[in-house]
Amino acid sequence: MFRITRQTPLPLHSVAATRRMEHAAMQVLAAHTLMQRAGLAAARLALALAPHARVIWLACGPGNNGGDGLEAAMHLHAWGMRPVVSWLGEEERLPPDARCSLQRARAAGVLFTDEPPAGLSAQDLCVDALLGIGATRPPEGRMAGWLAHMHASAARVLALDVPTGLNADTGHMAQPLPAPRAERHTLTLLTAKPGLFTAHGRDACGTVWFDDLGAPAALPAGEPPAAWLGAQPAAPVPPAACRPHASHKGCFGDVAVIGGECSAARGTAMTGAAWLAASAALHAGAGRVYVCPLADAGEPAPAAWAALPEPELMLRRFSALELRAITAVCGCGGGQAVQAVLPAVLRACPRLVLDADAINALAASTALQAAVRQRSAEGHATVLTPHPLEAARLLGSSASAVQQDRLAAARTLAARLDAVVVLKGSGTVIAAPGQPPCINPTGNARLATPGTGDVLAGLIGARLAAGAHPWPAACQAAWQHGALADDWPALQSLTAGELARRLRP
Length: 505
Ligand SMILES: NC(=O)C1=CN([C@@H]2O[C@H](COP(=O)(O)OP(=O)(O)OC[C@H]3O[C@@H](n4cnc5c(N)ncnc54)[C@H](O)[C@@H]3O)[C@@H](O)[C@H]2O)[C@H](O)CC1
Ligand SMILES: [K+]
Prior knowledge:
With 505 residues, this protein is an alpha/beta fold. The chain has 16 helices and 20 strands. Helix 6 (201-205) links the parallel strand 8 and strand 9 (207-211). The radius of gyration is 26 Å and the shape is elongated. Ligand LP7C6HRI binds next to helix 1, helix 2 and helix 3.
């Protein structure tokens, strides 16, 4: 068993693949072995998390997830921990493994109660063994009441395999849990599942632990993963210290940020978005960074030519950019003006990041979408960085539909546009055609502040400009962007400008 960290690239398996692996393991292991291992692992973790618990309450459901809880209760009882089990199964409908664990727990003298214990304190522990990968509908009735009791208490919660109600494939939860009052932990069993790390997964799971139940050794052939957590298949871009001594700024690629619309007609200016992306590219090591503000007619309005916040950045008119030689980051604060320049950008730029209003423009034009696909045929690199609403516009669906299955949304877009897609949000999904997507393990809610998406786009641009392929560029950038937020000093506010300045090559 180990705690999953942001350093651990890990294959993630779907529920269907997990079932197949479970089935294969059961063919070669003695009956009940997997559940015994699961229960022992759960009991060990429970003891480690709450060594001084006065009460360990195990809420056990009607299937094998409940069986894991019953098995864990038996060990905790043997270790003198006085567990209390509330079980809501029906004996005649129990699967054989869970039935066996029920008998073992009863025979051991574990205390059963129909009422959840009152007065749970911070040193106590609740174990959620209600539903695992067999959940078919949202919890209701007594089960929902027990869950509410658990999450309203001051005690820590340890969920076995999957937090009850969470879709292990997608991370969607019809009734999201309330904000945690105490630490949450999840011990996922046999396989790590993608839904634990995206959409509602991160909030529902808290810290995730993994025990493979010793099964891989028993399996004949590995199941292909549905996704990777933190896949970093390519070496990161070498840090600045590894650059040759005889370097010059032309060695690291030029990035042009095209966006930051100033519209006299609409009375709006979004230059800040372009500056943030440019600042990110600069601090992430791009050789030369241009900012190309747009206006109604595709050329900058005078206001956009005000001094840039960082003197290292250079202003360029769109018509003065050498599109065939640069990496473009297009769309940050692009407004409607981006529509006029997008066809030329798509045609000419060898490396391109499409963000925000560039994505909105694509969504409105099948011709532009075809132009994105054409880029791949010509060997040009394209990365799109939509948030869920932008992804929904591209897919012709809604943001909530995208959030219900973020992996599928990102995969579909990547296949449709033949490009790398970075679907932002809790558990950013990075998808590329023909390979399992990656879920980024870093980042937190402090990134939910204006401009951080522009910073990510600029960072990916810098990585592309340095010569990275789009997939590792996107994975590595998402990782670094989130890791900075994870390491941010607790008492300092996180702003996008400061985030950009803390990026490193
Ligand atoms: N994967 C493994 O190798 C191992 C899995 N273990 C554990 O077993 C569960 C999966 O068990 P299963 O019996 O298939 O499913 P569940 O326990 O999640 O529940 C199925 C059970 O619940 C009923 N049900 C479904 N939804 C609801 C609902 N909303 N309300 C009430 N009842 C519901 C359904 O009809 C079934 O009766 C896995 O997650 C692991 O925890 C092994 O023990 C170790 C190996
Ligand atoms: K559970």
